Amino acid sequence: MEFIADLHLHSHFSRATAKNLTLESLYIWAQKKGVTLVGTGDFTHPEWIQELEEKLEPAAPGLFKLKKEFTSPLDAQIPSRCKNKVRFILQCEISSIYKKADRVRKNHNLIYFPDIEGVKTFNSRLDKIGNIASDGRPILGLDAEKLLEIMLDVSDEAFLIPAHIWTPWFSMLGSKSGFDTIEECFGDLSHHIFAVETGLSSDPPMNWRVANLDHVRLVASSDAHSPMYLGRNASMFNTGLSYYHVREALETGDLTKYQGTIDMFPQEGKYHHDGHRKCGISFDPGETLQHNGTCPVCEKPLTLGVLYRVQELASRPYGYAPANRQGYHSIIPLTDILSEIFDVGPKTKKVNSFYERALETLGPELEILLKRSLTEIDALGIPLLAAAIEKMRTGQVNVAPGFDGEYGKVCLFS
Question: Residue 364: is its pLDDT beyond 90?
Fold first, then answer.
């Protein structure tokens, strides 16, 4: 079966996340968005794993569903055209800060398990290393290679995906504290890495330029800190809906089973360009080189973004595309499109009213953005919506790129 998965989320136990980032909210928003498989996030947190045990039950090999006693009060909130099954995969993110090869390294890694018993054993191992109760995404002084070793020691069915691999400050290939290759980061265990998360500031064509990534699958996830951001980046599968089918599709790279990604336009990510937010400086890599990597305002080193870092590690020209490649779609969230059309904020009552109307009539958001015909969309009677989605699908967008922690701005009509 074809389905969409969002494999990197958080819970309300992580810093800077919404209080309503709960299993119940994820159940509702997954159906509104059209996402079938959702990461639980934060399974290392003692209170969250307790909540997962209380509210989830096995649904398919290695996957879980919300118990009926919790779903029954929620079903009335879901538009009838959006109702669908929702499955959860046990997932967490670990922040590692450690020294390797005479440099301080900081990277984030995603861990997946098929069973709660394995998660508990894994958590007990990490609890002896650092404080896993302080944050839903714990910070540990643990080498990424050692983290992978511990995971494999607990279960050879678990797997690790390096998170948002290009982010400057906390990623495997980041400009500030990362490595140049997977092998440098994971050493003798690097052959266990069969997928990497591209992050919000890059997309598949950017990653295709780096030959060292040819042997791994590129996945996209929302890294959502609020339920409404679920599915802003996601991955597409055509396989059995089980933990083991998902893992197999990623590990083998079968293009019929793992069909690629759904991505925000990468320029919208917080670290696409180089720059200094406080100084209002945003540079593309060429401008950065002209200024020798220095901010012309404060004369301190610029934060080098994803585009610059990809250029550093690329062995192929801009525009390179491999012969056998995964698919991908570039999208703009429907609320952002409606926000631009009506010139109001994306969280206003007006936008929400038209958003819910669209879902009631046409189904989940990702179906509207990617599959519904322009004729069907136009029949909604929402001015300019069909034209906006056509422009999005054909890449006719104007973008002010994000930089140094500042999100970019994507516009369709200006």
Answer: yes
